[in-house]
C-alpha cells in the first residue's frame, strides 16, 4: 500500500510503502472490542470499598433477649438490616484486570492500524517537530494539516518542543511508538505516524 508523505507544515514529502500485513487487514470489531475492554479493565482503579458488618464499630452484644419479646431474633447491631450497620455484599478493593493472549493483543493493534488506513484516517509525515514549545504554534500546525481530533505517534522519543506544546491541547495526543495502543488509536479521528514510527512498527511485526 502506497501513501503520500507530508511534512509537518502540510507540504508533500514523497511517498512510503506500508506493509499490507500491518495496514491492509480487514478490520474485525470483535477483536478490537476485546482489546479495548482489556485495556480499560487493566487501568481501572478498583479502590471502591464499603464497610461490612465486621468493619462497623458498633456493640457486638445481643440487642435484647432471645425469647418473650414478640420480635425477631437478633444479635449484633452491626448486621446489614439495621441503620448504621455494615453493608451486605459491598464492593471490596480488587483488580479488574483480566488476561488476554499476547497474539490477540498484537492482532488488535494491527487491526486498529488497518481500520484507520481503510477509513482514510491515517496520515504519514516526515518528522514531527516544532521550532519552539508553543501551544499556539502546534494548533496552527494542526489547522494546516486539517486535523482536530488526532493521535501523533513519533519514534522512540517524542521531540521535546512538540511534547510540551501538545500538553494543553484537547483532543490531541502525542506518544512515542512504544506507547501506541488500540484505545488511543480508536478514540481519535486521525492517526498521524512519522516515518520513524512506521519503520518501528514494521520492525516490530516482522
Automatic annotation (TrEMBL):
One Pfam family from the record: Ribosomal_L4
Keyword Protein biosynthesis: no
Biased composition (Basic residues): 66-76
Cellular component GO terms, alphabetical: ribosome
Stretches the record annotates as Disordered: 66-93
UniProt keywords, alphabetically: Ribonucleoprotein, Ribosomal protein, RNA-binding, rRNA-binding
Self-association and partners: Part of the 50S ribosomal subunit.
Function: Forms part of the polypeptide exit tunnel. One of the primary rRNA binding proteins, this protein initially binds near the 5'-end of the 23S rRNA. It is important during the early stages of 50S assembly. It makes multiple contacts with different domains of the 23S rRNA in the assembled 50S subunit and ribosome.
Family assignment from sequence similarity: Belongs to the universal ribosomal protein uL4 family.
Entry protein name: Large ribosomal subunit protein uL4
Protein's organism: Flaviflagellibacter deserti
Amino acid at each position: 500500500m502506497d501513501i503520500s508523505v507530508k511534512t509537518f507544515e502540510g507540504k508533500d514529502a514523497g511517498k512510503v510503502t506500508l506493509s499490507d500485513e500491518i495496514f491492509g487487514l480487514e478490520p474485525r470489531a470483535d477483536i478490537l472490542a476485546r482489546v479495548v475492554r482489556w485495556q480499560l479493565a487493566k487501568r481501572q482503579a478498583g479502590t471502591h470499598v464499603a464497610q461490612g458488618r465486621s468493619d462497623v464499630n458498633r456493640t457486638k452484644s445481643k440487642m435484647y433477649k432471645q425469647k418473650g419479646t414478640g420480635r425477631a431474633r437478633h444479635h449484633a447491631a452491626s448486621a446489614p438490616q439495621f441503620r448504621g450497620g455494615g453493608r451486605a455484599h459491598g464492593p471490596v478493593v480488587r483488580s479488574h484486570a483480566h488476561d488476554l493472549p499476547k497474539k490477540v493483543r498484537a492482532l488488535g493493534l494491527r487491526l486498529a492500524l488497518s481500520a484507520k488506513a481503510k477509513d482514510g484516517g491515517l496520515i504519514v509525515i516526515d518528522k514531527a517537530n516544532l521550532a519552539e514549545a508553543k501551544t499556539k504554534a502546534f494548533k496552527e500546525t494542526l489547522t494546516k494539516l486539517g486535523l482536530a481530533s488526532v493521535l501523533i505517534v513519533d519514534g522512540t522519543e517524542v521531540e521535546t518542543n512538540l511534547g510540551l506544546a501538545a500538553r494543553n491541547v484537547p483532543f490531541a495526543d502525542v506518544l512515542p511508538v512504544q506507547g501506541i495502543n488500540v484505545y488511543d488509536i480508536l478514540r481519535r479521528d486521525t492517526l498521524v505516524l512519522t516515518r520513524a514510527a512506521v519503520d518501528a512498527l514494521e520492525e516490530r511485526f516482522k
